[in-house]
Amino acid sequence: MNILIAAAGSRGDIAPYTGLGAALRRAGHDVALAAPEPFADLVARAGLDFRPLPGRPEAHGDVGDRRALMRSAAAFVTELGQGFADAVTDDTDLLLLSATTAPLGWHLTEATGTASLGVYLQPTAPTGDFPPVVTGARSLGRLGNRAAGRFALRMADRVFAPATAALRRRLGLPPLTPSAARRRQEAANWPVLHGFSTAVVPRPSDWRDGLQVVGTWWPHVDESEQLPADLEDFLAAGPPPVVVGFGSMAGSEGERLSELAVAALRRAGLRGILQNGSAGLAATGDDLLTVGDLPHALLFPRVAAVVHHAGAGTSAAALRAGVPAVPVPVAADQPFWAGRLAALGAATAPIPFKELTAQRLGDALRDAVRDGTYARAAATAARHMAGEDAAARTLQAVERLAQRPSGASVTGNGAASNRR
């Protein structure tokens, strides 16, 4: 089959699909990954065809300003929608849609008859088990959690409304609100695979049919890839260090965070690796090393602990490596994942980014490294994750779709229109 994976967002929103796409390609499918232009090289290194999507989401600016975040998200989605249809070619047999691209992709499937499947990195369907992941709120009880989940979906619908209206006009489709499109998919039990471990989030029992948790999709890492020589030398020169990085977060706070991280490492008596990321972390010293972008799968198993922003992918990578974490959530779904790590016992209590100090970070690092219960809990989760093969389960779902009779719809609208 000709498969197009469509994903948008920051690096953590794209990288997991490179591993999934590579697995599908090894199984004999032709796979392209549509993503914003900055990730073209990331996609190419996985051996996948690249299709550019418009829009480049910036790191979140003032992470405490929810209204500003909503405006930024709406602007990004509107730009994304303007060019989304161009990524889908007439020979596309199957669309794999992320949580960000699905509200746009549904309209393409309606217009073209192309089959589609959700491949989400976060749980978005309302459930009584936990509140919506984007709120970072405490549990409101089962009824309250479900109500909050429905409200979160309505807020997302508002963000997508201008983009979907413009896209439907371009495709020659009658008007349909994002809420109506979503309800249509839910009523048809549109299939969604969730790419996270059941060790972290078990499948809620109150989810509808068609929603599965398959395990984590890992970013593609070439078999020949190795850590840089200077990093190998640093690792060999002393006890396992701590990695400190904030991914695509905190783009304007590199100097402050670097000083804070160094002070925290000194307080805990630990060596450190600063991963520069969007913040531009950097420091020098005999017990410090600054590195750029490196595969977590190669680096994390070699360290004593990881300080990170609790993005879904980084959180999973630390667990997979069996190392404890000190989560410093910044925005969006990060407080949710930070809370999950702490509940597993594999991480210290989350330190909200706005409350981060050298003292709090240093004390948390000392606990994470010296209290063996954190490492043991992480190792237990790692063993669970090793038994999950998310790529294989996704391949099974894809091949089930391939066996459907020609023209059968799995898009949730009950119709397979002619291709553009």
Automatic annotation (TrEMBL):
It holds the Pfam family Glyco_transf_28. Residues 3-64 form the Glycosyltransferase family 28 N-terminal domain. The keyword Transferase applies. Residues 279-393 form the Erythromycin biosynthesis protein CIII-like C-terminal domain. Keywords: Transferase. The keyword Transferase applies. InterPro entries: EryCIII-like_C, Glycosyltransferase_28, GlycoTrans_28_N, UDP_glucos_trans. PANTHER family: STEROL 3-BETA-GLUCOSYLTRANSFERASE, STEROL 3-BETA-GLUCOSYLTRANSFERASE UGT80A2. This is Glycosyltransferase. It comes from Streptomyces luteosporeus.
